[in-house]
Amino acid sequence: MDISRLLKKDAPDPDMSSKSEIYLASLNIKRILSLSKLVFIYLVCCFALPSIRFDIHSPIFISLCVSAFLSAIAAISIHLLYKKEMPPHKSIGIYRSYWLFLLLSLSPLFIRDTICSDLPFNTLLFFCLAIIVPVFSVKDLKALYLFFTIFTTAVSAFFSSNILNIVFIFAIAMISFFVSFYLHSEYTDIVTRLRVESDTDILTGLFNNRSGLEKMRSTLAICRRIGQPCAAYMIGIDYFKNYTDVFGHLKGDEALAMISQCLSDLFGRETDVICRYSEDVFAVLVISKSRVAATEHATRVLKRIEGLDIKSDIESTPVSVSQHLTVSIGISMYWPDIHPELTESTLDKLLASASSQLDKARENGRNRVCSTEGSSF
């Protein structure tokens, strides 16, 4: 079974995987709410203008009524969901449905443009409005404009024999797309960079504590579902505080970078999750068949890091500081058949057990591996 594929499939939507993205979605939902209100107000004003007389049986009148109704429903629905603090991704469905049905309800106006008007005013207004449509990803933006362009161009081609009119509407769609793409792609790029920065420990390049634990919870859920055991490692650098006190923080930062790179190489599978848990401790969650296999791999980690031979240029050091850095490792196993119920505290208990084994390794002389005995953490 390809576990890495399962992890990708069941992973949270990448556009919703961090607090920064949830905040972005909330901002976009507020914009959608405001946009729906503006559309509703505009359509109400059309009804209120004394110079405009509508035949209540005409497609134009029905179109405006349906559009106003959709705008009101969208505004109220999003407003209620937002007040109830529903997850933003649940409101995105309302946003997409709103624009789809709004486009269909405005069809009579687009048809009127092609038949009765030299200038497709309604179509032009619609695409100007679409430029400021909030998007959650560039993929959303492309799909939105592709549908808009095909639909409006098809309507124009079906109801008008004027080739210039068709070309003009198509040109409006293309210009609107490129303007919107420029604005929103830059916007989403900035958000993407902010997301990466918020999820990454700057010094080591690994996941930070928050994002690392989120990834571990996803991995743990998959492993429970497919019945695959996991091993949690807590890897602590021996005497690191003393090391930085003697050799300085710059040397300490260099040592952290070297050790984190070594750990990235040793835990390099797609399913492996590694993060900087605290100043001198790394947390790792890997899929492992047995405690023996996990311990053997941890021993290889010890030897590889000891082999880095991270030294300082200072010749005289206190007894409590080694001439080269080593690590101690605590291991705890998760067995899905013994712990079938996965709760919010399961990962915390698993890491706490591994941390307890790390403390035991340090008490027993450091530069060694300790793991939980038996089958339960």
Structural category: alpha+beta
How far apart the termini lie comes to 26 Å
Number of distinct helices: 13
The dominant shape is elongated
Q: What is the rounded Rg?
A: 30 Å
Strand order of the largest sheet: 2-3-1-4-5
- Taking all residues together, what is the mean pLDDT? 76
Share of residues in helices: 55-70%
Compressed to H and E, one letter per element, the order equals HHHHHHHHHEHHEEHEHE
Please give the largest β-sheet: 5 strands, mixed
What attributes does this structure have?
alpha+beta; five-stranded mixed β-sheet; 377 residues; 8% strand
Can you offer a commentary on this structure?
With 377 residues, the protein is an alpha+beta fold. It is 64% helix and 8% strand. The protein contains 13 helices and 5 strands. It has helices spanning 3-10, 19-48, 59-83, 88-105, 107-116, 121-131, 138-159, 163-199, 209-226, 240-247, 249-266, 291-308, 346-363, and strands at residues 230-237, 273-276, 281-287, 327-334, 369-371. Strands 2-3-1-4-5 form a 5-stranded mixed sheet, with helices on both faces. The two termini are 26 Å apart.
Condensed summary:
This protein has 377 residues and is of the alpha+beta class. Helices cover 64% and strands 8% of the residues.
Write the layout of secondary structure elements.
Layout: H1 3-10, H2 19-48, H3 59-83, H4 88-105, H5 107-116, H6 121-131, H7 138-159, H8 163-199, H9 209-226, E1 230-237, H10 240-247, H11 249-266, E2 273-276, E3 281-287, H12 291-308, E4 327-334, H13 346-363, E5 369-371
Parallel strand pairs: 4-5
Antiparallel strand pairs: 1-3, 1-4, 2-3
